[in-house]
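Could someone model guanosine-5'-monophosphate with this protein?
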Amino acid sequence: MGMKKLEERIRRDGTIRGTEVLKVDRFLNHQMDIALINEIGQEFYRIFQGDNVTKILTIEASGIGIACLTAQFFQVPVIFAKKNKTKNIAGDVYTSKVASFTHGRVYDIIVSKEFLGPEDRVLLIDDFLANGSALQGLINLVRDAGATLIGAGICVEKAFQPGGDLIRSMGVRVESLARVKSMDEATHSIEFC
Ligand code: 5GP
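Reply:
Sure, complex below.
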C-alpha cells in the first residue's frame, strides 16, 4: 500500500517529462513541502522503527532533506554520501560508482570511514528509485563498512523501470511510499501500483 497523500500530491503537482522522468520540483526536489516530507519521515519511522537503526545514509543533494526529517524520528545521525569531484580520493573513505539517471554519466560517491563501521545498522533513504544505481552505490558503501543493511526507504519508485526488482532480488528490503506503475506525458495521467 502506498502513501495516499504522496500519491495525490504527485498526481496534482508532478509533471511528466518524456517517458522516463517525473518532476516533483514543486514539493520534493527543489521547493520542499516540509509538512509533507515530515509525514514521509514519520511513515518511514513507522515501517522501520523496530529495526534498531543507528545511521541513515543518503546521497547528495536531493536525498538530504528527506533523510534529515526522517532522522528526527529515529534520533540517529544522517550521513550523506558525497559526489566526489576531485581526482585524488582522500585516504580514509569508502567509495563506489553511481551512474547518474538524470545526467547520464558515472561519478564516484564517498563516505568517510570515520562515520560508518561494523557496529552500524543502516537505513538508506532516497527520493527516487529508477534503475537502482544510486541504491546499489549506497549498498556497496554499507557492505564495505561491514555494517548491517536494514533496508531502503524510497519516496517515489518508478516501478516500470528495473531498479526495484533488481535491488529486491539482492535480498534488500525496499519500501517505496509511491510506486508509479505507468505515466503518460500527453494525457498527464499517472497510475500507481
Ligand atoms: P537510479 O540510480 O535508481 O537509476 O536513479 C535514482 C536517482 O536518480 C535518484 O537519486 C534521483 O535523484 C534521480 N532520479 C531518477 N529518476 C528520477 C525522476 O524521474 N525524477 C527525478 N526528479 N529524479 C530522478
